[in-house]
C-alpha cells in the first residue's frame, strides 16, 4: 500500500491517503496536546508507543467481536486503517468519576459509577467538544437513532472487554472516549485507543498512568504510557 498525500493533520495524528481509496494510513506523531490544542509539546517515543498500544487494543477488540478500522501495523509510528466516513460524535463511558464529570457535577474524584455512565459529545474544537444528547445528534443529522444505539452497544462492549484486560494487569479503566465511522454502511470503531484518550489508574495506589499526567503537569508522561504497555504485554522496541 503506497502512502500518497496528507489528507488531514490532527493534534496528535496525521492521516494520509493511499493508492486504494478504501484505506488510509494513520501516522502517530510525538505531539501531545491539551486544552483543545492550547498546549502542545513533543514527547519522544509517544507516537511509537501509542501506535503499538492502539494496535494491541484493537486486536483484542476485534477478537471480542467489535468491528474496528485497524488493518495492520505498517511501521513503528504508522498503521493501515479502513477509510471510514466518521461520525462527529464522541462516546464517553465512565466507571469512576474524574475529569469533566467532577467539574460539572461537583462529585468526588474516584467515586464508583454503577452502572457506568454513557455520554455523547460533539467533536468540535472551536466549541470545545460540547456535551450533547441523542436528540441533538438526530435532529442535526450527525447520526441516526439506529447508529447511536449501535455506537452505545459497542462502547459498552468495549468496556466489558477492556475493564477485564486492565484489571488483570493491575489497573483501573476510569473512563475513555471512542469515535465511530461508517464503512460499507456498518458502524466501525475508528480513531485510536491509547492513554491519550482514556484514564488509567494503578489499582492499588490510584497513581495516574494516562494523559492527565500531561494535562496536570505531573511529568513522566511517556514513562507512564510505557509502564501501561509493559503491564499489558504490548511489544515495544527498546
Ligand atoms: P472528560 O470529559 O473527563 O474530559 O474526558 C473523558 C474521557 O474521554 C477521558 O478519558 C479523556 O481522555 C477522553 N476524551 C474526551 N474528549 C477527548 C478528546 O477530545 N481527545 C482525547 N484525546 N481524549 C478525550
Automatic annotation (TrEMBL):
Pfam family name, one: SAICAR_synt
Catalytic activity: 5-amino-1-(5-phospho-D-ribosyl)imidazole-4-carboxylate + L-aspartate + ATP = (2S)-2-[5-amino-1-(5-phospho-beta-D-ribosyl)imidazole-4-carboxamido]succinate + ADP + phosphate + 2 H(+)
Keywords, in A-Z order: ATP-binding, Ligase, Nucleotide-binding, Purine biosynthesis
GO BP annotation list: 'de novo' IMP biosynthetic process; cobalamin biosynthetic process
Listed pathway(s): Purine metabolism; IMP biosynthesis via de novo pathway; 5-amino-1-(5-phospho-D-ribosyl)imidazole-4-carboxamide from 5-amino-1-(5-phospho-D-ribosyl)imidazole-4-carboxylate: step 1/2
Domain SAICAR synthetase/ADE2 N-terminal: 7-231
NADP among keywords: no
Molecular function GO terms recorded: ATP binding; phosphoribosylaminoimidazolesuccinocarboxamide synthase activity
Source taxon at top rank: Bacteria
Protein name per UniProt: Phosphoribosylaminoimidazole-succinocarboxamide synthase
Organism name: Aliidiomarina taiwanensis
Gene from which the chain derives: purC
Amino acid at each position: 500500500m503506497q502512502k500518497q498525500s496528507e489528507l488531514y493533520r490532527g493534534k496528535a495524528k496525521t492521516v494520509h491517503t493511499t493508492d486504494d481509496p478504501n484505506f488510509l494510513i494513520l501516522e502517530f506523531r510525538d505531539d501531545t496536546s491539551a486544552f483543545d490544542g492550547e498546549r502542545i509539546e513533543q514527547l519522544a517515543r509517544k507516537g511509537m508507543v501509542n501506535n503499538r498500544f492502539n494496535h494491541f487494543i484493537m486486536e483484542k477488540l476485534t477478537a471480542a467481536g467489535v468491528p474496528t478500522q485497524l488493518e495492520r501495523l505498517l511501521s513503528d509510528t504508522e498503521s493501515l486503517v479502513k477509510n471510514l466516513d466518521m461520525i462527529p460524535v464522541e462516546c464517553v463511558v465512565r466507571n469512576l468519576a474524574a475529569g469533566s464529570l467532577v467539574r460539572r457535577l461537583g462529585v468526588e474524584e474516584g467515586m464508583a459509577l454503577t452502572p457506568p455512565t454513557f455520554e455523547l459529545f460533539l467533536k468540535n474544537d472551536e466549541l470545545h467538544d460540547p456535551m450533547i444528547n441523542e436528540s441533538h445528534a438526530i435532529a442535526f443529522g450527525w447520526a441516526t437513532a439506529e447508529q447511536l444505539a449501535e455506537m452505545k452497544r459497542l462502547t459498552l462492549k468495549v468496556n466489558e472487554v477492556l475493564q477485564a484486560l486492565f484489571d488483570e494487569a493491575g489497573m483501573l479503566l476510569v473512563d475513555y472516549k471512542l469515535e465511530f465511522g461508517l464503512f460499507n454502511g456498518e458502524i466501525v470503531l475508528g480513531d485510536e485507543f491509547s492513554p491519550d484518550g482514556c484514564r488509567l489508574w494503578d489499582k492499588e495506589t490510584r497513581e495516574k498512568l494516562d494523559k492527565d499526567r500531561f494535562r496536570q503537569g505531573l511529568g513522566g508522561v511517556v514513562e507512564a504510557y510505557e509502564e501501561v504497555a509493559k503491564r499489558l504485554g504490548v511489544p515495544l522496541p527498546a
